[in-house]
Amino acid sequence: MSTPLKLGAVIITMGNRPVELRDLLDSVAKQDGPPIEVALVGNGSPLPELEGSAPRLRTVELPENLGIPGGRNVGVELFGPNGSDVDVVLFLDDDGLLPGTDTGELLRQAFTADPELGIVSFRIADPETGTTQRRHVPRLRAADPMHSSRVTTFLGGASAVRTKVLAQVGGLPDEFFYAHEETDLAWRALDAGWMIDYRSDMVLHHPLTEPSRHAVYHRMVARNRVWLARRNLPWPLVPAYLGTWILLTLARRPSGPALRAWIGGFREGWATPCGPRRPMKWRTVWRMTRLGRPPII
């Protein structure tokens, strides 16, 4: 009988949701099967008092906010280089909650059954209504959130990544700080031959929110979109990808201040270093196209 895969959960917090964080830790502790260890990162803030919240807790308090990808990367390293102490790391938002007790076991089964599976994206549902927002289904055909499928990206705060993926292609891009860091990792994983699944039966409860609640949203979204293209796409696809998103942004009729912030971020994306460029193979482009989302949208 094979040894069950070891799971570790990475949670970053700015210390402003202590009640929600304790509830999340309790939901992780209640998972069926072997205990899931937790790496908890105070991202530029002290951690709240957590006695009794989690039996297996590794913690660090960072002196400054490193952003979402930077904080999660620090959490991964609490499990050893590239998370090597565990087989799979879960990334969970600190105001989320695992409503079922079988998520851990479902993950073990999924990753064990499919050696090519590198990343799993959970279904995010509002705890009051059960609604899943369209933007939380990581594919173009998102009308039915109950339909599981192969996808080409994932939701960062409700996901699980095989640590072999991180060892092979690297972690999340620290410099992104916020927005599109998951897609950057997803594209690198796909290019290395890994697959990504959206699983509707693995659920994270999270209250309905709008991404624009973050003050830096419009600037970061535009800047990181350019960085994403510059880092990962063959040059012929860069104008097609960015042109598509310019049109989509304008079609959404942003407010004047939002559009100005977006334009500023777009310019910043071209004017600033984006990190190492590793364009994906054309066969990866074709594989993503067959999965329903070519890397031009």
How would you sum up this structure in a few lines?
The chain has 297 residues and is an alpha/beta fold. It is 36% helix and 17% strand. It is built from nine helices and eight strands.
How would you sum up this structure, described in words?
The chain is α/β, with parallel strands linked by helices. The protein contains 9 helices and 8 strands. An 8-stranded mixed beta sheet has the order 3-2-1-4-7-5-8-6, sandwiched between helices. The chain starts with 6 loop residues before the first strand and ends in a 7-residue tail after the last helix.
Oligomer: single chain
Beta fraction of the residues? 15-25%
Helix content range: 25-40%
General form: globular
The average pLDDT is 95
Question: What Rg is obtained from the alpha carbons, in whole angstroms?
Answer: 19 Å
Q: How many helices in DSSP terms?
A: 9
Instruction: Count the beta strands.
Output: 8
Give the helices and strands, then pairings.
Blueprint (H helix, E strand, L loop, with lengths): L6 E7 L4 H12 L7 E6 L14 E5 L5 H11 L10 E5 L10 H11 L3 E9 L23 E3 L6 E5 H7 L11 H11 L3 E11 L11 H16 L5 H14 L4 H16 L10 H9 L7
Parallel strand pairs: 1-2, 1-4, 2-3, 5-8
Antiparallel strand pairs: 4-7, 5-7, 6-8
Helix pairs in contact: 5-6, 6-8
